[in-house]
Amino acid sequence: MPTAANYVAIMPFPEIDPIAFSLGPLSIHWYGLAYVAGIMLGWYYARQIAGNNKLWPGDVSPITKVQLDDFIIWVALGIVLGGRIGYILFYDMPAVIESPIRAIQIWNGGMSFHGGLTGTTIAMIVFARRNSIPIWSLFDIVAAVVPIGLFCGRVANFINGELWGRLTDVPWGMVFCNQYIERADGYCPGGDFVRHPSQLYEAGLEGIVLLLVLAMLIYGFRALKTPGFVTGVFVCGYALSRIFVEFFREPDAQLGYLLGTNWLTMGMLLSTPMVLLGIWAMLRARRQAALQH
């Protein structure tokens, strides 16, 4: 029996076309634009951090703005290739085997953060070694700006009407269906049900909250002077945020719950080791700083 909250909550998903605009036969999706915006805004913020010598050990920035300009190509490739390959491996391999063209349709299923993190990490290690940049400091500057990209990506998930939440009766619940998402027969993948807008929960926690926490550590506590600490906070903070939101997010249909009913999801499984990794990075950074003093 629907409650009063149900009637307040039952609202249509915004009529937003996932295709922002078209240039002849080429369709430009909001999802792709979100990644471009995330990378460019992150690059701008990284330049501000790199240009402030007082934030770094010895009051000298370990990376120049010119090096950051070169690095943006590396990180873009790491994010896109790693994120898409990771999504295919972790979430969508059977569907891609059946229809290989699906592998390059980044708006169809999207990207895996854990895959993107792996790809970006490889790009950072190679770039740091080629340019004699302290690896942990490069990790830190990237970790500081990643929440911007996460925010943009989750908003794009919302526009696409994908990765919606579990059924709910909260007043801010939403029916994820509009003319751009429903099939020819009128059926919507999310069904005619009120669900948590879990994409926005992730945008808020992984994006805005984590960005502010890291900025406070960098500018208020000079955390960049302890190489690796910002990285540890980011990794641990992202993992905890993701695990929390997974309790409100509907698991991918092709995977479902990995353990029991309404319990373990792939997102939780991939994020749990990150909590330990983040704690290790913070402890390591503190230990190294103590040894140097």
TrEMBL record:
Topological type in the membrane: Multi-pass membrane protein
One GO cellular component, as annotated: plasma membrane
Subcellular location: Cell membrane
Pathway: Protein modification; lipoprotein biosynthesis (diacylglyceryl transfer)
Gene Ontology terms: biological process: lipoprotein biosynthetic process
Residues that hold a 1,2-diacyl-sn-glycero-3-phospho-(1'-sn-glycerol) according to the record: 154
Bilayer-spanning residue ranges: 28-46, 71-91, 111-128, 135-156, 203-221, 228-245, 257-283
A UniProt-annotated Pfam family: LGT
Entry keywords, A to Z: Cell membrane, Membrane, Transferase, Transmembrane, Transmembrane helix
GO MF term list: phosphatidylglycerol-prolipoprotein diacylglyceryl transferase activity
EC number from the UniProt entry: 2.5.1.145
Similarity comment: family membership: Belongs to the Lgt family.
Cross-referenced PANTHER family: PHOSPHATIDYLGLYCEROL--PROLIPOPROTEIN DIACYLGLYCERYL TRANSFERASE, PROLIPOPROTEIN DIACYLGLYCERYL TRANSFERASE
Function: Catalyzes the transfer of the diacylglyceryl group from phosphatidylglycerol to the sulfhydryl group of the N-terminal cysteine of a prolipoprotein, the first step in the formation of mature lipoproteins.
Annotated protein name in UniProt: Phosphatidylglycerol--prolipoprotein diacylglyceryl transferase
Gene: lgt
